[in-house]
Every structure is written in C-alpha cells, then in structure tokens.
Design goal:
This protein is mainly beta and 110 residues long. It has one helix and nine strands, in the order E-E-E-E-E-E-E-E-E-H. It has a single domain, classed as Rieske Iron-sulfur Protein, CATH 2.102.10. Strands 1-9-8-4-3-2 form a six-stranded antiparallel beta sheet, with no helix packed on it. Strand 3 and strand 4 form a beta hairpin. The structure holds FE2/S2 (inorganic) cluster. FE2/S2 (inorganic) cluster (FES) binds next to loops.
C-alpha cells in the first residue's frame, strides 16, 4: 500500500466532499457522519464528477442521474466505484492506493 498525505484536508469533523488527484486518479475524500471515506470521483454511469453530489444513507449520490454508491464498499445498484484506504497519521489524512506488489501478494496469499 502506498500512502499519500493530504494536509489540505482540514475540518474533518464537519460533513464534506473534496476531490483530490492522487497518482492520476480522481478521488473523493468524504467526511460523513464522523467517518472518513475515499472513493473514485468518476461516476461509472456516464463519467460525471461525484464530488459535486451529496451523501445520504451511507451513500454518495451522483448529481446527474442520482445513481448512488455505498461509501464503504463502492457498490451501487448495477455498478460499483473503487474505494481507497484512509487513515489519519500525525493529524494528517492519508489515502492509500494498492501497488502492483499488493495485488501479487494477494494472489499468493489465497
Ligand atoms: S452520470 Fe452519474 S448517474 Fe448518470
């Protein structure tokens, strides 16, 4: 897992959705009901920006056609979005992305 610090993410106690670009990926950092989540910012339906949407019932909702995706699992009704690991270290939010080696290790640990 490669971790990316995001010192620009502040006030995480309040609800928020902020889009960041990490390793060429557009990612939504979401503060929702006191927890942090990181999910892809690209709606799989027609590619619109999920960071312009809102959250309800533990899901991020696309502002265009209303498809929704679970913040924890990324699951939607017919599709899914990628989720990322989140941690706070030294009071700074960090997002984790899997490396090729993580995928290889996962194959051999099965
Ligand atoms: S583009 Fe997101 S629901 Fe259609």
């Amino acid at each position: 897992m490669k971790w990316y610090p995001l010192p620009e993410i502040q006030d995480i106690d309040k609800p928020f959705i902020k889009k960041v670009k990490i390793a060429d990926k557009n990612i939504c950092i979401v503060g929702y009901e006191g927890k942090l989540f990181a999910v892809s910012a690209i709606c799989p339906h027609q590619g619109f920006d999920l960071s312009l949407g809102g959250c309800e019932n533990g899901k991020i909702i696309c502002p265009v056609h209303g498809y929704s995706f679970d913040l924890q699992t990324g699951k939607g009704a017919n599709d899914f979005i990628k989720t990322y690991a989140v941690k706070i270290k030294d009071n700074i939010v960090h997002i984790g992305t899997k490396t090729v080696w993580d995928d290889i290790k996962q194959v051999f640990n099965k």
